[in-house]
Amino acid sequence: MTTADTPPRTxxxxxxxxxxxxxxxxxRVEFRGVVKEYGATRVLHGVDLDIAPGExxxxxxxxxxxxxxxxxxxxxxxxxxxxxxxxxxxxxSGVPTNKRDIGMVFQSYSLFPHLRVADNTAFGLRRRGAGxxxxxxxxxxxxxxxxxxxxxxxxxxxxxxxxQQRVALARALVTEPRxxxxxxxxxxxxxKVRVQLRDEIRRIQLRLGITTVFVTHDQEEALAxxxxxxxxxxxxxxxxxxxxxxxxxxATPNVAAFIGVSSVVPGVVEGDTVTVWGVRLxxxxxxxxxxxDVFLRPENLRLADGDAPGMDAIVQESTFLGSxxxxxxxxxxxxxxxxxxxxxxxxxxxxxxxxxxxxDSVAVRPRD
Length: 368
Prior knowledge:
Blueprint (H helix, E strand, L loop, with lengths): L17 H4 L7 E10 L2 E11 L4 E5 L6 H9 L6 E6 L2 E2 L10 E4 L11 H11 L4 H14 L15 H13 L5 E5 L7 H18 L2 E6 L2 H7 L2 E6 L2 E6 L1 H6 L4 H6 L4 E8 L2 E4 L2 E4 L7 E7 L4 E4 L6 E10 L3 E8 L4 E7 L9 E6 L5 E4 L2
Parallel strand pairs: 3-8, 3-9, 6-7, 7-8
Antiparallel strand pairs: 1-2, 1-4, 4-5, 9-10, 11-12, 11-14, 12-13, 14-20, 15-19, 16-17, 16-19, 17-18
Helix pairs in contact: 3-4, 3-5, 4-5
C-alpha cells in the first residue's frame, strides 16, 4: 500500500527508451489549507492533501464538488485565494503555469490539426528550445511509450478518439514533467476504449514513476488505477484512502453512497449496532441512537431460504454479469434493494424471494 508516509516505489528495469531511462522517483505534491473563491462563492474550503513521490492519486466526486478547480490550482491555471501549493517541498503558489514543470491532459485532445502526430508530440519541446533532432528523438520515445510510433506521420483527423488522446498523453510526457495532471481524459471515449486507455495510463505511470493526479467522476476508473483516492464533496475532501479502505470502511454516508453500489434501507441504532429487518449489524462508525438510513452493498445480501432471518421481497429485475447475478428486489417495507448472488441462481420477474443479511459492518446516516 502506498501512502504519503511510505517511500516511492522502486522503478522496474527499463529499455533504451530515453524517457524511461531518465525516469525519476516523482515529486511530492502538497495542498496546505488551499482556499479558492470566485467573488462571494467559496469553491475550495481549506483543502489539505499530501501526495507521495510517484503516487497515483484520484480526485473523485460529483460535478461541482471542486475537483477540477483543485487541479487547476495545482497547475497554476487558477490562483488560490489562500493557502499553499507545494511541489517537491517548494511553495509554487506564485509560480506561473509554464514554470511549474507540469504535464497536463484534458478531456478535449487539443491537438493542432495542421501538425502531424510526431510534430504535435514534439511541440512543447520545440517551444522550450530543444533542437529539431533531439525533439524528434524524444517525441519518438514518447509515442513508443503510448504505442503509437507507427502513426507518427499521420494527422489528428486520421486517428480515432482513443489514438488522439494517446497523442495528447505523449505530448504531456515528452517534456518529462515532475507531475502529470489528468482532467477527466477518458470521458469522451467509448466504454471499451476507456478501459484500455485507463489501464495503459496506469502502466505508463508505473514505468515512469511520475506523480500523477487524476480527476474523475467515475468511481470505477478511480478504483481501478489509484494508489489512493480523495473523495470530494462541496469543496472539501471527505475521505482519502486506498480503494479498499474507501470501499470497505467509508468514513461518511456520502462516501458510502458514492463509492460502489449501495441500497438504502431503514434501521435503528442502539449502542454500537444497528437493527435492520430484525437483525443486529455492527456499525462502521459511531452514530447517535435512533432511526437511520442504512447503506447495504449488494454483496452484503443473499437469497435465502424462507425461514432464514431477513425480509420478504419481490423480484423487479435480474442482470447476468458473468460470474454472478445482480438482482433488484422490492422489499415488504417498499425499499428497492440490489442483491448479488450466484449466476446459477436464476430468478424471474415478480417472483417472491427472501433476502438475508451478512454480518458485515455497515455505514449509516441519521434519518431526516
